[in-house]
Structure formats: structure tokens, C-alpha cells
Amino acid sequence: MPETKKRGRPATGSAMTGAERQRQYMERLKARTAPAPAQGEPEALRRKLADALDEVARLNKENDRLTVENDALKRRLKAKETRESDLCKRLDAATAERDQARAAKVQADADLALSRH
User: Fold this and answer.
1) 14 within some domain
2) Model confidence pTM above 0.85
């Protein structure tokens, strides 16, 4: 009589016990976690922190200095824009005055030409 096929996943012959699976799982967990710092590491970390804080303080001072310089440059730019605006208004007025003078001269020349005829 032919042997009937068994149900489920076929056996490979390399099955682990529950204890073996748990041991491998715990080893993987330990490998993922960072090791505890060595004795000298806290002092090195403190030095790095102090250096980083010094750098932050230096950058804050530089930022303050640059902010003051930026504000001064903005004020100078506004003053120059105001002066340029005033000069443009004066130029427009002078151009209008010149155009009026030219028109008056053309009219005067035309009147003179008519009076000579």
C-alpha cells in the first residue's frame, strides 16, 4: 500500500529547540545594543561637549556682530535709495523745465519768423 503524504511543512532535520532559538534571539539583541562606555570615555565626551559649547558661544557672538553689521548696511542702503529718489525727482524737474524752455524758444522763433514776413 502506498504511503500517504503527510500534512504540513516537511522536516529538514535541522530544527532547533525552543532554548536554542531563544539563545540566538538574545545574542542578536545584545549585538544590536550599543556597548557601555569605557572608563575613559565620559571624560572625552565631556571635553567634546565643552568644545562644542565654546564653538556655539563663538558662533553666537559672530551672529550678533553680523546682525549689527547687517542693520547698519540696511540703513546705509535706505539712505542711498532716498538720496537717489531725491536726485531722480530733481532730474525730472530739470528735464521738464528744459522742455518748457525749448517749447518757449520754438514759439518765440515762430513768432519772430511771423513778424518778419
Assistant:
1) no
2) no
